[in-house]
Write a structure and sequence with these properties.
Layout (H helix, E strand, L loop, with lengths): L9 H10 L7 H11 L1 H8 L7 H7 L14 H10 L5 H19 L28 H15 L5 H12 L29
Helix pairs in contact: 1-2, 5-6, 6-7
Length: about 200
């Protein structure tokens, strides 16, 4: 079994990336992205640009991977990450991710999302409106906005989503089609997670 790679601080991770050829014009911004997104997630974007040791490739007659994903994470680390994103516990955060994966799959396969019953239910965070329904998609768009405010604070996603719901959604007089079917709660635009975008 290969020994585990040594732990590196965010600053050390950035230095390692610079040594490997990453051009960094704004160190503060680069550290911010590493902290919010994580080295592992960003590595997916660097993967196509990696340099493969041709001698090792020739010996094994295939490309060589120099890193391996180690599944599992210490409970303490789960709790730390959950706190960064505003989740009450690591277990709750893991459920958020499973629920969001469900939402992503529905959208990716062009299925009906706006009024679907969500089967991977998450719990409502403390301090959020108890009128929210975890079985309805709107709750998960609120979670997405919560995560976006941490991952990419300058993103306009929240404002574009608000515009889509408040201005672009069809206004029907028959009431057969309503944002309530999506789980939208009256006054949501004024909630803290949706303000200031």
């Amino acid at each position: 079994m290969k020994p585990l790679k040594p732990w590196l601080s965010f600053s050390d991770q950035l230095e390692q990336l610079r040594e490997r050829g990453l051009q960094v014009e704004d160190r503060t911004a680069a550290l911010g992205y590493l902290k919010r997104l994580g080295y592992y997630r960003l590595s997916g974007y660097w993967y196509p640009l990696r340099r493969i040791d041709e001698k090792a490739s020739a010996r094994e007659n295939r490309p060589v991977r120099d890193d391996r994903f180690v599944p599992g994470m210490a409970h303490k680390d789960q709790e730390t990450i959950a706190a960064i994103y505003g989740a009450p516990t690591g277990k709750a955060f893991a459920q958020w991710l499973r629920s969001l994966n469900f939402i992503r799959n529905v959208a990716a396969h062009h299925s009906r999302l706006w009024n679907i019953n969500v089967v991977e239910l998450s719990t409502i965070p403390e301090g959020w409106s108890k009128e929210l329904k975890p079985s309805r998609p709107f709750f998960y768009f609120c979670l997405i906005q919560q995560l976006m405010r941490v991952i990419c604070p300058n993103s306009s996603w929240g404002q574009r989503y608000k515009t889509l719901l408040t201005e672009a959604f069809p206004r029907l007089t028959s009431q057969q089609l309503s944002l309530k079917d999506m789980g939208v709660v009256e006054g949501w635009e004024d909630w803290p997670i949706w303000r200031g975008q």
